[in-house]
Write a structure and sequence with these properties.
The chain is 42% helix and 16% strand. It has helices at residues 3-13, 30-39, 54-70, 81-87, 101-108, 121-129, 154-163, 194-197, 202-218; strands at residues 16-19, 44-47, 75-78, 91-94, 113-118, 134-138, 168-171, 189-192. β6, α7 (154-163) and β7 (168-171) form a beta-alpha-beta unit. α2 packs parallel to α3, α2 crosses α9 (202-218) and α3 packs across α4 (81-87). The longest helix has 17 residues, at 54-70. The model has no long low-confidence stretch (mean pLDDT 94). This is Thiamine-phosphate synthase.
Length: 219
Amino acid sequence: MNCVEKRELVRRALLLYAITDRSWVGKMTLYEQVKASLDGGITLLQLREKDMPDDEFLREAKDMKALAASYRVPFIINDNVGIALAVDADGVHVGQSDMEAGSAREKLGPDKIIGVSARTVEQALQAEKMGADYLGVGAVFSTSTKEDADVISRETLQEICRAVSIPVVAIGGIKKENLMQLAGSGAAGVSVISGIYGQPDIRKACEELLALAKEMTEK
């Protein structure tokens, strides 16, 4: 796969990007929630476990990778490059304070997907230079998932999208009621947590979000 083909594959995968959050587990297990989101049409799955011991994380990651693969949906690990390597995940997402994109690329090789969080044009350009395949930009709306996440302006999101050649996914507080406010921003898709896993009908929520995301990216 050449660089152009990979970039297009990543761009398509960002359309409805689901990030797991164990705090929303209730009557359903996390596995059941993820399966419902896959049934609803998510295009990329990120497994995020901040407080789980590595041995448990590894077992869970193996199960989630197999589930995502059965739907032909790319599977990303949040932050933990070691776990991503151990389960042969499709990639990893790192933040500004985590392992740099360049270091992650050295460990994972050229074919894996590397995403980096960015809040400024400078951060975005540096991440692209270091080998990131996509940027997660936000928070674009206020969010309960990360209470310390400051909201960035629509103008900043647009500036970042224009400044880089790699695709950008918007993240933070996105739900069906506000998703269309991102139309025309240049974002290739939306990354959603509570708008998926905090909903009573996860499959239906994903179907609605996917339709809106398609509409948003076409404007």
